[in-house]
Specification:
2 strands; membrane; transmembrane helix; Peroxin-3; mainly alpha; 23 helices; about 500 residues; two-stranded antiparallel sheet
Length: about 500
């Protein structure tokens, strides 16, 4: 039996060999397929985690941008209000009114009822207009404190401010009040919008470097596996997270000093010139419709930004946002980032400045800025002025743009609108509970623009820590997480807008 079994095996050994080969090949093929499936599953899981991590970082970065704007905006507000001291003009008008009333009544009447004669007894148009500034709370708190103080140091300091200047007529003071109130509010709207965009560019450029440095450091294997590495790749390692170039980033962020101290003042001069040309002939006692006020506001914007799409694209905002190359060292010195005013920016800082300048000069920047200004001016004219000066009740619908006003037939005196402009200037430049900043932040294109800045030009970033260059697969994966700028910045911007439209 054993012999017959051996003979059967010898006769069929070829078949056994073929069968074993087939089974072995099937086994290895199955293992290969399972391995590939496992790799694909792991890769999809890693990509999903990476995308969620990137989106989480991006969203946190946008929140940081909002807080940063509110933190540094009051600096520009203080400089603009100091350059356009509308409250001092109002105080001079109040003093002239008091003197006029004092001359028209007897001394005994002044002693018995001085205050009522100034406020309640003012029956002419100017008296009613000044009363609106007082009774509706449109005078700044610091101005109220100065005027209410009967004696002391504060009063002695206020007198030289007025006595040193030649006395102006009532008409001159009202005209100065008109131009100053409107120019100040408009300048603050421009400053808020520009500061919002500049901060988005700066923090998203640094956020991109932060993310890329962490991705490359985690993805790159150590050069010497036998050594124990004590590097901390966590998010709390601040110096490493920014590519081991913390000083460069501090200097880069300090360049916003230019907008807060110089750019906003230059912009104020241009806005004031435009306001004088458009609102100069308007009488404060005159009644105008809300539609007329909106048209005049739009005319000011055309003079500042450009009357046509082509002129708006050609408008250069860079001089207001960043210092010229010969002033960069001065700005670094003034902001406390450099000991000397002759120090030159490092190559890394120069690269950040150049990329920021390119972004500011791009058509996409002008497009987004126009939308931000639309939202800011609409909130001022369509919401605040219409409700507080024209007494138009708020509606549940979204406020129209400046040129599309609900309740356009309503009329109010120009002086009433000036009172609202005066108060809203402080609201626009406030660092807390700023509904103008909220209106600007609600523009969808702003986040699309930030996403493009955050996700573009990864291939040009070389993390300083470890000198490791990002691999092609790493940059491609990161690039696809938000947008995929395969054709440069403008292509990425178009794809970002297409994604925004798809979400809507």
């Amino acid at each position: 039996m054993i012999a017959s079994t051996r003979r059967w095996i010898r006769r069929n050994r070829t078949n056994f060999a073929i069968g074993a080969g087939v089974l072995g090949a099937g086994y290895f093929a199955g293992q290969y397929v399972l391995g590939k499936l496992s790799e694909a599953r792991q890769r999809m899981s890693d990509e999903r985690i990476a995308k969620e991590n990137l989106r989480r970082r991006f969203e946190q970065n946008q929140e940081d941008c909002s807080y940063t704007v509110l933190a540094i905006l009051p600096t520009a507000t203080e400089n603009i209000i100091e350059a356009l001291p509308v409250e001092q003009v109002l105080e001079e008008l109040q003093k002239q009114k008091a003197q006029k009333v004092a001359r028209s009544v007897g001394p005994s009447e002044i002693a018995s009822s001085a205050a009522p004669s100034v406020t309640d007894g003012a029956t002419d148009d100017d008296g009613k207009s000044l009363t609106s500034f007082q009774s509706e709370g449109y005078v700044h708190a610091s101005q109220i404190a100065d005027t209410e103080s009967g004696s002391g140091e504060g009063q002695e300091l206020e007198k030289p401010l007025i006595s040193d200047k030649p006395k102006k007529s009532k008409a001159q003071l009202w005209n100065e009040m008109k131009i100053g109130s409107i120019s100040r509010a408009f300048t603050l709207l421009y400053t808020l919008s520009l500061l919002t965009l500049l901060t988005r560019i700066q923090l998203n450029l640094l956020g991109r470097r932060n993310y890329l440095a962490s991705v490359v450091s985690l993805a790159s294997p150590p050069t010497e596996a036998s050594k124990i590495s004590l590097e901390n790749h966590d998010d709390d390692n601040f110096e490493h997270a920014y590519g081991n170039d913390f000083e460069t980033n501090r200097r880069y962020l300090s360049l916003s000093w230019w907008l807060l101290h110089r750019g906003c003042i230059d912009l104020m001069r241009k806005v004031t010139t435009a306001v004088k040309e458009v609102f100069g002939s308007l009488n404060p006692r005159e009644e105008i419709t809300l539609e007329k006020l909106s048209e005049l506001t739009l005319e000011v914007r055309k003079k500042v930004e450009g009357a046509t799409d082509e002129l708006r694209r050609q408008k250069k905002w860079l001089p207001h946002l960043l210092p010229p190359p010969d002033q960069e060292s001065y700005v670094l010195h003034e902001s406390g980032m450099a000991e000397s005013s002759t120090s030159t920016p490092s190559p890394s800082l120069r690269r950040l400045i150049d990329e920021t300048s390119d972004l500011i000069d791009s058509p996409s920047f002008t497009h987004v800025l126009t939308l931000l200004l639309d939202a800011a001016f609409s909130h001022l004219i369509d919401t605040k002025i219409s409700q507080q000066a024209y007494k138009i009740p708020p509606t549940s619908a979204t406020p129209a743009r400046v040129q599309e006003i609900v309740g356009a037939d309503a009329k109010a005196k120009v002086a009433s609108s000036l009172a609202v402009f005066c108060r809203q200037a402080h609201a626009i430049g406030s660092g807390a509970n700023n509904d103008y900043a909220a209106a600007v932040e609600s523009v969808n294109d702003l986040e699309a623009f930030a996403a493009v800045v955050y996700s573009s030009n990864f291939e040009f970033e070389a993390p300083e820590a470890g000198g490791t260059q990002p691999t092609e697969s790493t940059t491609q994966s990161v690039r696809q997480s938000l947008v995929e700028p395969d054709g440069g910045f403008e292509s990425a911007w178009g794809k970002a807008l297409a994604k925004e439209d798809g979400v809507k």
